[in-house]
Amino acid sequence: MEDEKKPSKTIRKPRADAQRNRRRLAEVAKAAFTEQGADVSLDEIARRAGVGIGTLYRHFPTRDAILEAIYRQEAEQLGEAASNLLEKTEPVEALRAWLRLFVDYIATKKLILPALKASACDTSELTAYSSGQVRTASHLLVQRAIENGDIKQDVHALDLLYALYGFVSVDQQPDVVVRAHRLIDILVAGTIK
């Protein structure tokens, strides 16, 4: 009996320019959603990005697809930021800077997640993915700060995340980000050896 050769299903990676265009469209869409809310039209997003609606639909065939891409992109950028910050600055300052980025992430999540939940999307995989990115990055930063002798050994990354998430989620004041940054300074000061 001869071995049958099955056609291979190779998945081509998108070209680098296509990936850049997709990322740029997601960034423009995030800004539009932030400014105008979850009901901003896809035509408006395409106009702001300087592309035709067909180009937008080629990258994101539905509103849900673009919302999901923004959510995923934000989580990935937050995850990548931990290593990048550790390369450039001392661990405790990298932790402080990353926590500020986390506050921005929470603000995006507050905007995007309700729209995704209201759609037909199954958000469980997406939220698990983003939670993994956030937890991995925060644990890395806290561990490095502990190893460097910057913060106490009993500091837990999740405690910092929960404190910030709770504060930003409950507070609806327009200056919440500024106040959250002050809270970060207080939290980090409380962890110093």
UniProtKB/TrEMBL annotation:
Q: Does the keyword Repeat apply?
A: no
Q: What are the DNA-binding region positions?
A: 41-60
Q: Which Gene3D superfamilies match?
A: Tetracycline Repressor, domain 2
Cite the InterPro entries for this sequence.
Homeodomain-like_sf, HTH-type_TetR-like_transc_reg, HTH_TetR, Tet_transcr_reg_TetR-rel_C_sf, TetR_SbtR-like_C
GO molecular function terms here?
A: DNA-binding transcription factor activity; transcription cis-regulatory region binding
Keyword entries, A-Z: DNA-binding, Transcription, Transcription regulation
Q: What is the superkingdom listed in this entry's lineage?
A: Bacteria
N-terminal signal peptide = none
Please verify whether the record's keywords include Ligase. no
Q: Which named protein is this?
A: TetR/AcrR family transcriptional regulator
Q: Which organism is it from?
A: Dyella choica
